[in-house]
Request: fold
Amino acid sequence: MNRRDFLRASIYASTGLIHRVSSALSAVAEIEITTSDTGPEISPHLYGQFIEHLGGVIYDGIWVGRNSKVANVDGIRKQFVDDLRRIGVPNFRWPGGCFADGYHWRDGIGDPAKRPRTYNYWQASMPDGLDDTETNQFGIHEFMQLCRLCGAEPYLAANMASGSPREFHDWVSYCNAPVGTVSLANERAMNGDKEPFGVRFWGVGNESWGCGGDMTPQEYSTLYRRFVTQFPAYPPKPFLVAVGPRGHSKDLDIGWTNGFFEAMQGGHRSRVDGLSVHYYTDFRNSPERVSTFDARGWYEVIREGLRTETVIEQHWAAMGKYDPDHHTKLVVDEWGVWYRPGEEISPAYLLSQPLTLRDALHTAVTLDVFNRHADKIAMANVAQTINCIHSLFLAQGDRFARTPVYYVFEMYSNHMRSHVASMQIRCEELKVPSRNGIATIPGLSGSASLKNQTLTVTITNPSLDAPVVARIRLTSGSIIEGRGSVLTHTEMTAGNTLDRPNEVSPSALPIVVRGNRAEISIPQHAVVALELRIS
Ligand code: AHR
Reply:
């Protein structure tokens, strides 16, 4: 590397990407991983999930009912539980989304036969003649049972737009107060759960700039303070998440972040542990379709996924002006690729999408961004786990499919609780077709982390044409053994559907290991995960 390349490399090092700007096409990448001096732990919560009462997410997707012919545990789809346990699901955000600001938690407790049928925010989006009213069969007790079955932590979103601080505080007491204290705790016990739920993560509203109340950041900050100052102090210590920006706005909605923190200055003492950022790769108003697309469509989606890094960096910088010690962390509690309607798996399954390999690569580049910024992000939740936007599963009755996105979560699961290892990738940038002509994207992107002498390395090759030989070098230690897996397909548009559930799944990737070096060949349009045991 000459001096100019070295300087350029240093500039990009913090993002984990080093591009050699050269016109010669190369299918070789040099990757250097620093194993001696690791960074922050990657919280498992970066691999979180989001489930909302919307179309086929809760009902049929997760809740099939205790008398269903579909295999279930206490009414919850068994396959859903088994698959999420397998990948170590860390949390579920629930009950919404936009649904949360119309939800009254009391409607979902007590004898299921006596629970009311209530209005659901999403009813207005249902095709004519189809019903999405809420039966309340899946309430807080059923949700907590789901969390227990999966080994996941609950993350509850409070109703701010149509609820009150009192309703919120009662919910907190109902969940967390020990039996024998307040009546709400005894009521919880009567309803089957003597032990407190111990809910730690509380979202104070959802999208308060939109479906959650259509507020300005100033109005929201006032309401936020009213909702949190009387928060009942039962253990555990809460992690309070304030509503943050609509990150997929053209200007990244930096104005919301500035406006909210500005309004929280001036002696206010209310704590903000997390700032929620929603970042959708938003193709709702573009001609892009889910399952049929060309090279331009492929690269557009992946480029938008890579933009997650800009969203994180810019909001983090804005927050730093008001909170230089960065007490408040980012919580990316909705993310995913959102295409225009028209390809739902069934008309009532609003926002469901038959995802493809393209969305798997988008997932991989996004999770790599989260890993690389593990110091800034407390949690992230993919929207949404089943039968929805960026889902890991599709399900209808007894039919079930894991999408390619599921397999990326599986391949990346070793990153959870590992420590970030700095990774420098040197390879050609790609010149790719885009809406505005030609765009440039990194030839590879990835992340690395270390736990108990096991190095996890994940890399994405977005190129539709060129495989890449990646030569990996560790700055210290030797590789004792290595294992690799790869997710790809001959067709870029391949996906798993209810009719063809096994089209895309990972397979073993050969890896050559010698001393502190490893070499792999990454096929085009592929995600790879390596596990290197090092000394
Ligand atoms: O995930 C679907 C919807 O997207 C959520 O309900 C809302 O918060 C967001 O706009």
In short: The first helix runs from residue 3 to 13. The CA atoms of residues 80 and 433 lie 38 Å apart.
